[in-house]
Specification:
The chain is mostly helical. It has a single domain, classed as Rhopdopsin 7-helix transmembrane proteins, CATH 1.20.1070. About 80% of the residues lie in helices and about 0% in strands. It has eleven helices and no strands. The chain has helices spanning about 1-15, 25-55, 60-85, 95-125, 130-135, 140-160, 160-165, 185-225, 230-270, 275-300, 300-310. α2 runs antiparallel to α3 (about 60-85). The chain is globular, with a radius of gyration of 22 Å. This is G-protein coupled receptors family 1 profile domain-containing protein. One of its GO terms (cellular component) is plasma membrane. GO terms for molecular function: trace-amine receptor activity. It is found in: Cell membrane. Belongs to the G-protein coupled receptor 1 family.
């Protein structure tokens, strides 16, 4: 992407941005970003362990959360390499440079693709609740997740084929880490990785919001004259679906807030060189989304808090712990 190319060249030819900062400021930046990277990996690892270990959490929606946690965990790991690029040149070699960018593109796009699948899942659950158990099954969700990851890997490997076949092809000096995507490839990447997914997510959640409001009004009007355990159970189930839609809606909103600046800078920069600090900010904001997702789960989902407590206290190691009810 153009602004990333300009950023890399600026650091290599124009000198490290660290020279213009006080050592204490640079150290603070490193500590903060390193802490975010570590916490991102730890929190998402807890989600991975929780959903994988506890059998009662094996649901289609949680399978999508598991896919998102896996991609976020790897994105948190890749943030370490982004920290290297903030204040200095790349010193891990041309092959690692190519590997880093390929993995970065694949896993960030897989995270975006999973967001789309989550939106579809909530759309069906809220708008077509009677058809949800039939249309959204564990097997179908696993197939969709597999296709999402496969398509992301294939698309970005084709997009970065030159950097894969000839690492360091576009470098102009020692210590530079550059990948170049042609104009049409860049347009395809922006459309497939940003415009199309964001459009689908926004349209689906607008529809979910409209349906949720209408259903809330309907439940309030019916609850006065309705009695019976069956009705109460239906209302409780509907409230549970609404709560899940609200929680995942916050996840999607935070995702849009973190991702949009990255692509806005990309689209506006063209061939211009963007300052290292601006590029660093939007890139780190992009990565911070993977750190925020587990915090949202901890706030909205009691099962995640219970799982964290079980993991931290090592109760997960007890025999039969996988059958425990974490709800």
């Amino acid at each position: 992407l153009p602004f990333l190319i300009g950023w890399s060249k600026e650091m290599c030819h124009g000198g490290s941005a660290q020279n213009s900062r006080a050592p204490a400021v640079s150290m603070l930046i490193y500590v903060i970003l390193s802490s975010i990277s570590l916490l991102t990996m730890v929190m998402n690892l807890m989600i991975i362990i929780s959903i994988s270990h506890f059998k009662k959490l094996h649901s289609p929606t949680n399978s999508l959360l598991l896919s998102l946690a896996v991609s976020d965990f790897i994105v948190g790991f890749l943030l370490v390499f982004q920290i290297i690029l903030i204040d200095g040149c790349w010193f891990l070699g041309d092959i690692m440079c190519g590997v880093y960018f390929v993995l970065d593109y694949i896993f960030t796009s897989a995270s975006i693709g999973t967001m789309v699948l989550i939106s579809v899942d909530r759309y069906v659950a809220v708008c077509y609740p009677l058809h949800y158990p039939i249309k959204v099954t564990q097997y179908r969700v696993q197939v969709c997740v597999f296709l999402c990851w496969t398509i992301c890997a294939f698309f970005h490997c084709m997009l970065l084929m030159d950097s894969i076949q000839q690492p360091g092809l576009y470098n102009t000096c020692v210590g530079e880490c550059v990948v170049i995507i042609d104009f049409f490839g860049g347009i395809a990447d922006v459309v497939c990785s940003f415009v199309a997914p964001v459009t689908v997510i926004v349209v689906l959640y607008v529809r979910i919001f409209v349906v949720a409001v209408s259903q809330a009004h309907a439940m309030r009007s019916q609850v006065k004259g309705a009695i019976g355990q069956g009705f109460v159970q239906r209302v409780a189930a509907k409230k549970s679906e609404m709560k899940a839609a609200k929680a995942l809606g916050v996840v999607v909103l935070v995702f849009l807030m973190c991702v949009c600046p990255y692509y806005c800078v990309t689209l506006e920069s063209g061939d211009a060189v963007v300052s290292a600090s601006a590029a660093a900010f939007v890139m780190c904001l992009f990565y911070v989304n993977s750190f925020l997702n587990p915090l949202i789960y901890a706030f909205f989902y009691p099962w995640f808090r219970n799982c964290m407590k079980c993991i931290v206290t090592f109760q997960i190691l007890k025999p039969g712990s996988s059958d425990a009810n974490m709800g």
